[in-house]
Amino acid sequence: DSIYGVHNMPGLPTGSIALSPGPVMAAADSFTVTVQGKGGHGAMPHLAVDPVVAVSAMVSSLQSLVSRELDPTKTLVISVTRIHGGDAFNVIPDTVEFGGTVRYFDDEVGARTQERMRAIIDGVASAHGVTAEMKYDAGYPATRNHEAETEFARGVAAEVLGGSASEQWPTMGSEDFSFFLNVKPGAYAFVGNGDGQDCVTVHNPKYDFNDEILPVGASFFARLVETALPRADAA
């Protein structure tokens, strides 16, 4: 009938539980753009069609979607995280490939961004005399907590903690639990992993899981079940 999940979160006090309704983690899409030019000698650029210069312009132009086309009250991240092209210092390559991630909360923002990315890349390619092919993959949808289930889970968290749950601020990270929340109502919570100077974010080689939070997460799950599905009177 409903579904609940938790994720440890460095930066929050040890053993705290953060929980709020609405979008709490972003959608995550990925893209790859292959730019085809005409290779040549680095000393004779006029005899080549340089895809490196074209890609440089594309990467810069994509950021205008965030700074100049997006409603400032909404959220969008376009991060180019890789560029591959060329093997020698004196050779202009034939092709350059780049790619990255797109993050947002609003589905309309995501659809509009994909459309505008294609238009910008095609336009810059035309201006530089190269061709470009973009592959865009929709990844995880935004993680959105349902209001009634979130309030229920906040009450359970308060019981487990002996105090109220914290507010859960949205993050541009993504989570595959979002697929479950698109099928069944529920909520996704953060359990604090600690907020000291040695606190390191997740997905980091120096990350250290705090074993002290295990009873908090386990108790939270157990009390969710016990509260939602109380045992029948044995008598």
Task: Explain what this protein looks like in three dimensions.
The chain has a 4-stranded antiparallel sheet. Strands 1-11-2 form a 3-stranded mixed sheet. Strands 3-10 form a two-stranded antiparallel sheet. The chain contains 6 helices and 11 strands. It is of the alpha+beta class and 235 residues long.
Query: What share of the residues lie within helices?
Result: 25-40%
Which class do the helix and strand fractions yield? alpha+beta
Query: Any idea what the radius of gyration is?
Result: 24 Å
Q: What ranges have pLDDT less than 50 throughout 5 or more consecutive residues?
A: none
Strand residues, percent: 25-35%
The neighbouring-strand order within the major sheet is 6-8-4-9
Give the total of beta strands: 11
Give the helix tally. Answer: 6
Largest sheet: 4 strands, antiparallel
Question: Termini, distance in Å?
Answer: 27 Å
Outline, from the CA principal axes? Answer: elongated
> What order do the helices and strands follow?
EEEEEHHEEEHEEHHEH
Topology overview:
Blueprint: E1 3-9, E2 17-18, E3 22-25, E4 27-36, E5 40-41, H1 51-62, H2 64-69, E6 76-84, E7 91-92, E8 95-104, H3 107-128, E9 131-140, E10 143-145, H4 147-161, H5 177-181, E11 186-192, H6 214-228
Parallel strand pairs: 1-11
Antiparallel strand pairs: 2-11, 3-10, 4-8, 4-9, 5-7, 6-8
